[in-house]
Each structure stands twice: as structure tokens, then as C-alpha cells.
Design a protein that fits this description.
- This is Methylmalonyl-CoA epimerase.
- With 144 residues, the protein is of the alpha+beta class.
- The chain has one domain: 2,3-Dihydroxybiphenyl 1,2-Dioxygenase, domain 1 (Roll).
- It has 3 helices and 8 strands.
- It has an 8-stranded mixed beta sheet with strand order 2-3-4-1-5-8-7-6.
- β6 and β7 form a beta hairpin.
- The chain starts with a strand and ends in a 7-residue tail after the last strand.
- Bound molecules: (S)-Methylmalonyl-Coenzyme A.
- (S)-Methylmalonyl-Coenzyme A binds next to β3, β4, α2, β5 and β7.
- (S)-Methylmalonyl-Coenzyme A (MC0) binds next to β3, β4, α2, β5 and β7.
Length: 144
Amino acid sequence: MLTRIDHIGIACFDLDKTVEFYRATYGFEVFHSEVNEEQGVREAMLKINDTDDGGASYLQLLEPTREDSTVAKWLAKNGEGVHHIAFGTADVDGDAADIKAKGVRVLYEEPRRGSMGSRITFLHPKDCGGVLTELVTSAESDGH
Ligand code: MC0
């Protein structure tokens, strides 16, 4: 069951500059940052609020680390902006299987590693009304 907005992913050319915009404009601070080489991104997670399912909601700022990454490709075509939304679930495997059975393409056979030790998969934007959609099981809620 999808129980929260885990994060909104925002693509940017310059992570440090974008982090500073969110700090100066809204007062949001970096909760966590990391490089995910598999996904080709350097990212900063800005925690917005805890949620009543024991998780939290974040803004995820993404800067590509290589030109062939999905985010670099997207930035070249669209410029900076909202790249994807992510729903949180305690069971990414089960929810991905249920959604796949409804005819939506799930992009990974098995969930991969996401921010802060989470397990993630993506749904094809062309099957989701133009919205790249991610499913996330955070490390805290993962029974695996
Ligand atoms: C591509 N398309 C999008 C889109 N990316 N539409 C909405 N939102 C996006 N973000 C559209 C394109 O405009 C194009 O439409 C069509 O999908 C095919 O795109 P493409 O540029 O030709 O590229 P493909 O097919 O090679 O790849 C698209 C695909 C890919 C969605 C399969 O981007 C992908 O695998 N994304 C999932 C992984 C990802 O994005 N990782 C970065 C965040 P037209 O109409 O022109 O045909 S990593 C992350 O977020 C992690 C760290 C985490 O949360 O923990």
C-alpha cells in the first residue's frame, strides 16, 4: 500500500546552487547527501516532514554525474524542473507486482538501491500520464 509522498525529484545543473536556493528561500536544510553511481546522480535530500506511517517526505535535488545518465538526458531536453514523483510503501516488491498486473510498465525486474539505503523501482512515464513515478521502501520500513 502506498502511504505517503516519499519525495519529489527535482533535476538541476548545479546541486550546490540549488541547495542554496532552497535554504535561502524556504529555510530547508540538507538532511542527507550521496552519490548514486548506478543512477548517475549526485543528490541532496531535504526533509520536509515526518509522516504518520513512520517515514518522511523529502525534496530530492538531483545533479547528473555523467552525460549518459537519465537525468542528464532529461535536463538536455527539458531544462531544470520536476523530474519524478516517488510514493512510499512498506512493500515495494508487492506494490510493483500489483501495478504491473494493471498493465503499467515497471522498469526494473528487481528493486535497486535508492537514497539512504532504500529499495526503489520506477514506472514508465508513458504509462503514468507523462509522470515518471518511483516506488520506494525506505531502509526503516524494509523487512528484507
Ligand atoms: C523520459 N521521459 C519522461 C521522463 N524521462 N517523461 C516524464 N518524466 C521523465 N522524467 C519521456 C521522454 O520525454 C520520452 O518521451 C520518453 O519518456 C522516452 O524517453 P527517452 O528520453 O527516450 O529515454 P529512455 O526511453 O532511454 O528512458 C526513459 C526512462 C528512463 C523513463 C525509461 O529515464 C529511466 O529508466 N528512468 C528511471 C531511472 C531514473 O530516472 N533515475 C534518475 C533518478 P517522447 O514523447 O519524447 O518519446 S535516481 C533516483 O531518483 C534515486 C537515486 C532515488 O530516488 O533514490
